[in-house]
Specification:
The protein is an alpha+beta fold and 596 residues long. It folds into five domains: 3-58 and 564-584, no CATH class; 64-142; 147-234, Sandwich (Immunoglobulin-like), CATH 2.60.40.10; 239-456, Rossmann fold; 464-540, Immunoglobulin-like (Sandwich). Helix content is 27%, strand content 28%. It is built from 14 helices and 34 strands. α1 (3-29) packs antiparallel against α2 and α2 (35-56) packs antiparallel against α14. The chain is elongated and about 140 Å long.
Length: 596
């Protein structure tokens, strides 16, 4: 039994007792009692009890009527009134007739009875989202404009390394996206797929902070541009061990490429009869292999390892990267051993011609390769039709746990990788890839081997970075700070940090490169102008606001809450006073008969 029922029962019992008392009093009074007075007293008893009950437990009212209309960025200048609900305008909205407020929290303090908010415009930004928690939200987002809906900026890279830039377009199925390097040259271009996704590639140069640009074109005019910040950081050179069963041009060009790509290379080649060429011999054991980050060996070196393969595979399980490559047709024993590692080769034995993709445009190829002068002669100016003759294993690499890494022009897997412990192994089926560098396709050779080693090399400790896209005038949250951490603005001045929950809040006032400095570290990060990437910013706010709204299957009304109690308590006080006065008043009583 609830407290409401207990109180109702007590009040009902009190009314019955009071009515019985009045009836007995009326009967005892006899001819002096007034029937009219009795009826009034009997009626006022339940009225007082009912008013007291309603004062203690006032009826609930719906919270749906306590609505606040909020105009955010992108809202129309004019809006129709709705049910007398107040209308406020957040910064970025210029709606006529709305009450201007600096943020949603201020608006809720001015309208404390608000239970439901109706949003007009693009939605709430990160500053106002926490204030809307716990409220019912009505939000019908407007359609997004055409433009860059999402942009993924690259993580810090090493000098000379390639980096990807991905994103999504809203509309513009026939648009063209270009990546432009700091010198103003187009380094890559692409068209979006059916879902609007695109991926571009660039190459980092010298260490430091670089500003690439993303240009969106729909025909000749430029629709939108955005800065793609790239942080190029020097790091320890990864250590690569190249093992070959015999000297040859493949090993020569692989060593040259790896050195130019920033690897510390050690080469071991067998000349037969126990003679080793290249660098001083190294032992294939656990202690030695821990000094390397990746090992590249051919099928003949694999066969020559013998019992030392167990030490190599144990090092892979601990994080070492391993790349297997054929130097020619594989014998049955090597094919079975590689299949035991998880690399299944399906198809005929022997070699087959490798279908090569069409090279990129000459200007893009020059930019990726670092050739600044478009008139500079070199292998990149050769005709696209001059393709080298490169072979591959006729068998196709596969396996239940393998991931395709490279594909040929016929979309057949050329290289796959799989995990082994905390390390990775890859199988590359190409033979004599050095021919690419001799026939004008050095860029393709570079892409292949960067992808192979990038997939398996032992990962180095990631440098600290502040990821994501940030806009001027919008709050950022910085974490992993020390007591002496500070932010250096583009003009060299120091910015204030406000501690919150173990992190710090920072409001960048201007666009450009900022640096988060501490005693032992300096982390640069880029802040976009407030007007940059407007479609991406609108999509972010819209999606975050839709999460507040829920699935939108029902119109939010707000939770019911108790109504005001004071009108009922005031009525009970008036009725009780009237009852008290009527019981003591001589009104409607029979006159007393006089006696002598």
């Amino acid at each position: 039994m609830t407290i409401r029922l207990i109180v109702a029962a007590i009040l009902g019992l009190a009314v019955l007792i009071a009515a019985l008392r009045l009836l007995l009093w009326h009967r005892a009074a006899g001819e002096y009692a007034s029937l009219t007075r009795l009826i009034l007293l009997l009626l006022l008893q339940p009225v007082c009890a009912l008013l007291l009950f309603l004062g203690l437990f006032p009826p609930t009212v719906s919270g749906g009527s306590d609505m606040l209309r909020v105009a955010s960025a992108g809202a129309p200048r004019l809006a129709a009134t709705q049910g007398g609900a107040p209308l406020v305008a957040l910064p970025g909205s210029d709606m006529v007739g709305a009450e201007a407020v600096p943020d949603l929290a201020t608006a809720l303090r001015r309208h404390p009875a608000t239970r439901t908010i109706e949003l007009l415009g693009q939605g709430l930004g990160p500053r106002d989202l926490p204030a809307a928690a716990g409220l019912a939200v009505r939000f019908t987002p407007p359609p997004l404009r055409n433009g860059i809906r999402y942009l993924a900026t690259p993580s810090p890279v090493s000098p000379g390394a390639a980096f990807p830039v991905g994103g999504t377009l809203e509309g513009l199925a026939e648009a063209k996206v270009e990546l432009i390097d700091p010198a103003g040259r187009v380094t890559d271009s692409a068209k979006p797929d059916a879902q609007g996704h695109f991926t571009l590639s660039g190459t980092a140069r010298a260490a430091g902070a670089a500003e690439f640009r993303l240009r969106l074109r729909n025909g000749d005019p430029t629709m939108e541009q955005a800065v793609v910040p790239v942080i190029v950081q020097d790091s320890a050179r990864p250590r690569l061990l190249i093992m070959a069963g015999a000297p040859g041009p493949e090993v020569k060009y692989l060593r040259r490429w790896a050195t130019d790509a920033g690897f510390a290379v050690t080469t071991q080649m067998s000349a037969g009869g126990g003679v080793q060429l290249g660098d001083p011999p190294v032992s294939i054991d656990g202690a030695t292999l821990r000094r390397f980050d990746a090992v590249l060996l051919d099928d003949r070196s694999w066969a020559a390892l013998g019992s030392r393969r167990s030490a190599l595979l144990a090092a892979v399980r601990e994080g070492l990267g391993l790349i297997l490559r054929p130097s020619g047709p594989l014998d049955a024993a090597t094919r079975a051993q590689w299949q035991a590692l998880g690399f299944v080769l399906t198809g005929q034995a022997g070699l087959a011609p490798l279908a090569l993709p069409k090279p990129p445009a000459a200007a893009i190829a020059r930019t990726r390769a670092g050739i600044a002068d478009p008139d500079m002669p070199g292998d990149l100016t050769l005709p696209d039709t001059l393709l080298p003759e490169v072979s591959r294993l006729a068998a196709i690499p596969a396996g239940a746990d393998t991931v395709p890494l490279l594909r040929d022009a016929g979309d057949r897997p050329l290289a796959v990788w799989r995990a082994l412990g905390v390390g990775r192994m890859a199988l590359f089926t190409g033979v004599d890839s050095y021919a690419l560098t001799l026939t004008g396709h050095r860029l393709l050779h570079d892409q292949w081997w960067r992808a192979l080693l990038g997939a398996v090399v032992r990962p180095a400790a990631a440098p600290p970075a502040i990821e994501g896209v940030h806009w001027a005038g919008e709050r950022m949250t910085l974490c992993r700070l020390t007591d002496d951490s500070r932010v250096e603005r583009p003009d060299g001045g120091a910015a204030r940090l406000i501690p919150i929950s173990g992190c710090a809040a920072f409001w960048p006032a201007s666009a450009g490169w900022h640096v988060l400095r501490s005693k032992d570290d300096a982390t640069p990060f880029y802040v976009q102008p407030a007007t940059a990437l407007p479609v991406m910013r609108a999509a972010r706010d819209r999606d975050a606001t839709l999460m507040l709204r829920g699935d939108g299957s029902a119109d939010p009304k707000g939770e019911d809450r108790p109504g005001a109690a004071w009108p009922f308590l005031l009525g009970w006080l008036v009725a009780s006073a009237l009852l008290w006065w009527l019981e003591r008043s001589r009104l409607a009583r029979q006159p007393t008969r006089s006696t002598r």
